[in-house]
Design a protein that fits this description.
This protein has four helices and 17 strands. The protein has a seven-stranded antiparallel β-sheet, covered by helices on one side. The radius of gyration is 22 Å and the shape is elongated. 35% of the residues are buried. It has two domains: 110 residues, Rieske [2Fe-2S] iron-sulphur domain (Rieske Iron-sulfur Protein, 3-layer Sandwich); 187 residues, Alpha-Beta Complex (Naphthalene 1,2-dioxygenase Alpha Subunit, Chain A, domain 1). It is of the alpha+beta class and 321 residues long. The two termini are 15 Å apart.
Length: 321
């Protein structure tokens, strides 16, 4: 599966506490916990002894103890104790399956054997960061990312906020690509009645869009009348082919507006998107062109079309059709 080339977000860093956390990635149940040094550890959520969910267990002395027979595993997955056989030296076949873990951008990332360099790189963003979520959504991860990249729904789904139904036109813009083929819009102008939580009124706003990886994207926006620069990232974890877990990270130069006000604005925006996202059929994102039986397109959909071509070029098969 080509998806194992990539690193995937599985939790916000603050979600990993003292108890094991059950997560799901690419259809596989996983368990996330912290070892004795506080580092996050990720295992397949299956005890190698009798297949019980390790997420039902507990963390003890920097090890994970299975709830069924009490087998204990260190942060590398090695079984270090079998209570029913005190003198037994567990061989390698008794180890839990461990995945690689990295912490970046306030998120915990999972990597399979053979995963490439690491999580996406974010450069030059404002220092203040807030992470919103998780949101468990009944649609595929690429459907959610494509919605994040879509501009022509602003006037209808976010009327009075990010768009105005009296002005639904998508202005001329150009889609380019990074050296490694990720779609980019360097400048997209939009009139928005309320572009951010701190906005006092309507303004022309300049957007920049960049696809970061198959299921992640970045937009940066700033009003022409001044005000803070805001960048938003969607981190999508493909839990199952038609279900995903999302986080939204905001990087803002606004040092005044309270966290709760910023969070409430973004949660309200996603609450407008969510019912539309979950209504879409098929839930998996169609990658075929319109001439090959795929979904209809128009000139306003050029970024969506570029994103679908990018997924095809990456060999993505999970969450698409």
């Amino acid at each position: 599966m080509n998806e194992t080339r990539w690193w995937w977000p599985v939790a916000a860093e603050g979600e990993v506490a003292d108890a094991p956390l059950a997560v799901e990635l690419l259809g596989d149940p996983l368990v996330l916990w912290r070892d004795g040094g506080g580092a996050p550890v990720l295992f397949a959520d299956r005890c190698p002894h009798r297949g019980a969910r390790l997420s039902m267990g507990r963390v003890e002395g920097g090890t994970l103890r299975c709830a069924y027979h009490g087998w204990r595993f260190d942060g590398g997955g090695r079984c270090i104790a079998v209570p029913s056989a005190p003198g037994f030296e567990p061989p390698a076949s008794c180890a839990a399956r461990a995945l690689s873990v990295q912490v970046a951008h306030g998120m915990v990332w999972a990597g399979f054997d053979g995963a490439e360099a690491g999580p996406p790189v974010l450069d030059g963003l404002a220092q203040r960061r807030l992470v919103y979520g998780p949101f468990d959504v009944e649609t595929s991860a690429p459907r959610a990312v494509e919605n994040f990249l879509d501009t022509s729904h602003f006037a209808f789904v976010h009327e009075g906020w990010l768009g105005d139904a009296a002005h639904p036109e998508v202005p001329a813009h150009e889609v380019t690509a990074t050296a490694d083929g990720r779609p980019v819009i360097e400048r997209y102008p939009a009139w928005q009645p309320r572009a951010s939580a701190a906005a006092a009124g309507g303004d022309w706003v300049d957007y920049r869009y960049e696809v970061l990886s198959p299921f992640a994207a970045l937009l940066t926006k700033q009003g022409r009348g001044g005000g803070p620069e805001d960048s938003y990232v969607i981190w999508a974890c493909p839990a199952a082919p038609e279900r995903c877990r999302l986080w939204f990270a905001q990087y803002t130069s606004d040092l005044v507006t309270p966290d709760d006000t910023l969070r409430d604005f973004q949660v309200a925006i996603f609450a407008q998107d969510r019912p539309v996202l979950e209504s879409q059929r098929p839930r998996r994102l169609p990658l075929a062109s319109p001439g090959e039986g795929g979904e209809a397109m128009c000139a306003a959909d050029r970024l969506s079309a570029a994103y679908r071509r990018y997924l095809r070029s990456c060999g993505i098969t999970f969450g698409v059709c």
